[in-house]
């Protein structure tokens, strides 16, 4: 039996992650780790908009091999800050997975969580969120486009 869930769009995030700013930790028995630095970007939704604060990172672990080319799945864990146009900081953690057998440009499914202060954006702290992301290049800068939805 297939169950359909309802969801509403919350925001779209563009996070800049230039290739030259990737830090390769390397491989061991647990996988191949690289840290992808988040250098900025922006976000927009019906109820909020603003910028991605530079300084976050995606801890990207390739599992099943100890070199970049030998992994069979990937776990991504990004933690960074958003700053709304009215100056409020919102922390976001985004955990996701992808099997490397999927198409190279396929989306990664994620489960974002927010930490918003009391007030106007506090609603982000409640509910279940899902997202998808894919890498792309805009104006010569490599980054990720993230779509976030709240389950109803």
Keywords:
mainly beta; 10 strands; eight-stranded antiparallel β-barrel
Number of helices: 0
- Major sheet strand order: 1-4-5-6-7-8-9-10
Instruction: Please bin the fraction of helical residues.
Output: under 10%
Distance between the termini: 20 Å
Element order: H for helix, E for strand: EEEEEEEEEE
SS-derived structural category: mainly beta
Shape: globular
Radius of gyration: 16 Å
How many β-strands, per DSSP? 10
Average pLDDT, all residues? 91
The fraction of residues assigned to DSSP E strands is: over 45%
Instruction: Identify low-pLDDT runs.
Output: none
Give the biggest beta sheet: 8 strands, antiparallel, barrel
Give the SSE layout.
Elements: E1 7-16, E2 22-28, E3 31-37, E4 40-44, E5 49-63, E6 73-84, E7 89-99, E8 108-115, E9 129-138, E10 141-151
Would you kindly provide a written description of the structure presented here, covering whatever features stand out?
This protein has 152 residues and is mainly beta. The protein is 0% helix and 63% strand. The chain has no helices and 10 strands. The chain has an 8-stranded antiparallel beta barrel. A hairpin with a 2-residue loop joins strand 9 and strand 10. The protein is globular, with a radius of gyration of 16 Å. It starts with 6 loop residues before the first strand and ends with a strand.
């Amino acid at each position: 039996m297939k169950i359909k869930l309802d969801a509403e769009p919350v925001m779209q995030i563009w996070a800049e992650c230039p290739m030259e700013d990737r830090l390769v930790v390397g491989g061991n028995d647990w996988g191949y780790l690289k840290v992808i630095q988040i250098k900025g970007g922006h976000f927009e939704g019906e109820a909020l908009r603003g910028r991605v604060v530079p300084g976050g990172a995606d801890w990207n672990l390739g599992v099943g091999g100890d070199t970049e080319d030998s992994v069979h799945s990937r776990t991504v864990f990004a933690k960074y800050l958003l700053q709304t146009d009215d100056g409020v900081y919102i922390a976001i953690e985004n955990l996701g997975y992808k099997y490397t057998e999927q198409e190279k440009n396929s989306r990664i499914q994620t489960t974002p969580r927010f930490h918003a202060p009391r007030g106007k954006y506090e609603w982000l702290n409640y509910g279940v969120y899902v997202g998808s992301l894919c890498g792309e290049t805009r104006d010569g800068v490599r980054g990720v486009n993230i779509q976030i939805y709240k389950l109803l």
